[in-house]
Amino acid sequence: GSDSHLPAYSQVVEELVSATTNLPPATSSPAPSTATPEEARDLFACLQNFIVGRYHKGDGSLLNELRDLYQMMISSGLLEQGGKYSTMALKNSVQLFCQSGRLDWARSTVELYRERITNDPLELVYSFNSAMISFYAGEYQNVLQLLYNRVGKYKITALDIAARLFLCRAMWFVEEYEWLLSSLKNFSKYLQRNPRVTATDRQLYLPYARHMHRMVLAVSGSPKHRRSRLLKCQEEMTAAGHQPTYGWLYGQVTGLLEA
Hints:
The protein has 259 residues and is an all-alpha fold. It has helices spanning 6-21, 37-56, 63-76, 84-99, 103-116, 124-136, 140-147, 157-173, 177-193, 199-220, 226-239, 247-258. Helix 4 packs parallel to helix 6 and helix 6 packs parallel to helix 8.
């Protein structure tokens, strides 16, 4: 669809939420009488994907739509009924807000989630997203505190992998190299042995852990060989096709070489 269709999609989502929660309609248009929570979530997912796609093409003008709609979905209770969908929708929205520099939007969304969602008694989802916000804010010690005792407890594998990645990156920035090397070793074992990890995730993240391990050895080892080891890391990632998964690692290595 084109940008001109977005207001119509937004209006339909509001009407679906109103119809399924007995809230007063947010627009003057009549709300459908046969709407279901599944329809509301499906339409929201389509809209979210559309906005994310536009953002990655350089257009962030629609992020306010995502923020408003997401907070409306939380307030209506529809996301709590969504289980895994709810968790990943929150993670994706908060990460997009963080990447675009809207940390205040990310925080307000996470706090609203904490207030309204009751199926997260251990606050694992809340803690993960709070840690993600802290990471983008440069508060790396806070990331360590929030995630260290929680990795391995997430039921959703994608969230567990993401938590491990943020934890490792935070260790890198605070120069906890021995701890990081141990964590990368454990991460590799987790990817290889956990039956819930998909083949695709293994193909993506085992090389990531290996590249990061070599990057850490390059900066923590002998200063005499630091540059040659970093160049080798860069060459290996380039040879692997510079996959998007390696983007952060590649940026760190390149920054060190240019320093």
